[in-house]
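Morning, I've got a small favour to ask if you have a moment. The fold is given in discrete form, as structure tokens running alongside the sequence. I'd be grateful if you could look everything over and explain what you see. No rush at all, and the record is pasted right below.
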Amino acid sequence: MKNDVVPVQIRGILPANNGVAIFIGNDEKVFVIQVETGMGRIISNFLRKAHNERPLTHDLIGSILKGFGISLERVVISDLRNSTYFARLILKEQNELGMKLVEIDARPSDCIALAVAHGRPIFVATPLFEQVEDMSEVLEQLNQAGQQDKPDDEGT
């Protein structure tokens, strides 16, 4: 499966009309996955390594996996159907009986949040990566506009 995927990273997180736009990609291409505002905040907090007073659902899932000796190997954004992205969590269990890999269907936003929280890689299925529209220029323009809107540090 690793040959059929492209490694990607989060390239930007920006507010959007109906939530948050997560820009995901690499040097070749960047595409956007829209997520709910709350999920965007969670992913952003994980990226900043901000800690919560109480565990959130993704923290709870991580604790449960750890308690059972299961680790998150990677996540794969696998498909796009009817404007909805699909993703898979790839989990690994290692014990005295051997190693077992399990794939679980999950929302891309949950997969991304868990990958960021656990420092695990994010991949996109190659056919999907070839299909999505490149949004690199849009991200660059938004980043430049954001830089222009920022006050300088000297007198403001």
